[in-house]
Write a structure and sequence with these properties.
The protein is mostly helical. Helix 2 runs antiparallel to helix 3, helix 2 runs parallel beside helix 4 and helix 3 runs antiparallel to helix 4. The longest helix has 35 residues. The relative contact order is 0.10.
Amino acid sequence: MKGPINIRKALRSFTYAGVGIFNLFRFENNARIHLIACILVVIAGVFFKISATEWALVVMQVALVWAAEAFNTSIEKLADLVSPDYHPVIKIVKDTAAAGVLILAISAVIVGSIVFIPKVLLLF
């Protein structure tokens, strides 16, 4: 009788997800741009000694943008497989998925501005 959780299966799932994260940053230019932005934000967070609440907001924004980028990439790859040639509906699907990433990136910039602009202004 198996237990309620199959540990091997769970570990295998984490491995697949890890490969997906690796491939996201390896092959997707926009994901690498978001990674560089994340590194800069972490450096700024350490420099300005942001609070635990501010860290939580920043981490949530970073995670949301990366997750959106992963979903967008998945949708684009699947759309390319389903319809390798140009199709107006596939274009709408891809554009809409990219819009989701843009919406979250704008949200991240707004949250980052709320957290960091007051701290930058204190330097002057």
